[in-house]
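User: My collaborator sent over this chain with a note saying "see what the structure looks like." That's all I know about it. Can you take a look?
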Amino acid sequence: MKHGFIKVSAATPALRVADTEGNAAEIAALARCAAAEGCALCVFPELSLSGYTCGDLFNQQVLLDGAEAALAAVCRETSALDMLIVVGLPVRVDAALYNCAAVICHGKVLGLVPKQSIPNYVEFYEGRYFTSGIGAEVQVVSLIGQEPLFGTNLLFRCEQLPQFTLGVEICEDLWVANPPSGRLAEEGATVIANLSASDELIGKAAYRRELVKSQSGRLMCGYVYADAGFGESTQDLVFAGHNLIAENGSLLAESKRFENGLTSSEFDLDRLMHDRLRSNTFGTSFQSFVCVPFDLTLRETPLTRWIPRTPFVPEGRELLASRCEEILALQSTGLATRLRHARAETAVIGLSGGLDSTLALIVTVHAFDRLGLDRKGILAVTMPCFGTTARTKSNALRLAEEYGATIRTVEIGDAVRQHFADIGQPMEKQDVTFENAQARMRTLVLMDLANQCGGLVVGTGDLSELALGWATYNGDHMSMYGVNGSVPKTLVRYLTAYEAGRSGDALRSILRDILDTPVSPELLPPKDGEISQKTEELVGPYELHDFYLYYMLRFGCRPEKIYRLAKHAWGGVYDDETIKKWLVTFVRRFFTQQFKRSCLPDGPKVGTVSLSPRGDWRMPSDAVSALWLREAESL
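Assistant: Without extra context I'll predict from the sequence alone. Here is the result:
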């Protein structure tokens, strides 16, 4: 439960219809298995103590008494387990019978939540037996020698981890137009348990999966869907035990259908709370909900859930291709709109032969094509200087030629030398002044060429460089429209590779060589004709920095949690000391370089993480990093 993680399980026991005693034993055994895995929550299917397909046996007093005795047995057998357990059974309240979920902790029934939506169509005829829980006021009932609360407006909150607040709905409740889970989430439920007995039909599994995923996303919650399986009557229906665990729109775990047992994963409750706080639409309905407290021991939750190494890059070839197409469309549409609005006759790009400027050119080509403009209106400017290698210069020239852009080469070496002479900078002193003077000279050239031709300077810097401040202030840091400003370096690479994959042989060859070129600003003289200044040797691997950036900005994770997630995702690739070293670097640079982000040019937002000072990231340039840095350094 440290860092907001809790392990949860959806459990499908092998039950027998109306065998309440045997079902209680199966449920207790599975609950013990879940507890041994470290679960904080284990959810069982609808009417799991009696069986869902009992039919008219639900009108038999013997079955109802047996279900209550089974509940008592489960409480007794699981009293030593440090876990929340949710089981289903029929419960009599006054003169009505309800299809209920019993929430149990340490042998005590905390509450009984009745099903609200009672299906009575096609193969379902629950209305024959059960009363809807809609409008059921919270009240105390007497059951198995205890006095639990009964009602639909119940929430269950962990005293030791308040982020763990459970709401319960039952099967059909999810499938209706206005599921109870919506109100539960508005009132603070971060986890929804659904006890289900959903029969299996052709195509239903896919719909069920999307339903659970979308509801978890809509509610920004963790959703545990426990489905009835083997042992239910197959007289007319077949149940597959299709268990699903989803978090905020993502499927974390799914059982194989037609198999019983546990399906487990971990919820990141801190992550859910961060999204809710950011959206500020939760906890505002102010209805009469009763919060029932329970106690669990705080303990470490081992992570088994998948943590992507490159969270900005989608998994799967088809999804990645679709995402690349969408991002390029966003970038090029934004640039096309700006060009048309500014009545710019030309787009001016400093083309280095590196990844970022290559992507900027690709985007500009797409923008010109959208506007129906001649690509000759794209002025690709190469500006060789002290660190330029033959490889990058050649790739820049060949790339511009293949795309049909206008090419111009401006040698800036003499101008930089004159500038050094003017300010008294020795050529042999290859310090930050030596490097930045070249970057600023290039920007001066681009801006003045844009003035000459009525053009607009297209920026090339990416999101990762902005996060680290790896840009020369008023040099490559500045442009008239920054098309890559919200695209991280890891994604820049995939976007360029996507363009290469759909290009002709000549262009593909150039793009692939650019992809194979080490990332470098090329501001120091080459050694033996090869790049001497490799960015990732100086500031660290971009794949790690993008990981840190994503979890810090997207979910507000503290350094300690980012470190844990990075070890889980990158273990075996980077050792712990390397992960810590570059995390400290990231934190330090992120804070000290904010002043560069406070005056960024406009640019299109393409993802959920952006550093635009106008909308997404508003931080004073004087903010102190001490709290974050102290935690990172102490890992």
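A starting point for your reply to your collaborator: The chain has two domains: 2-294, 317-633.
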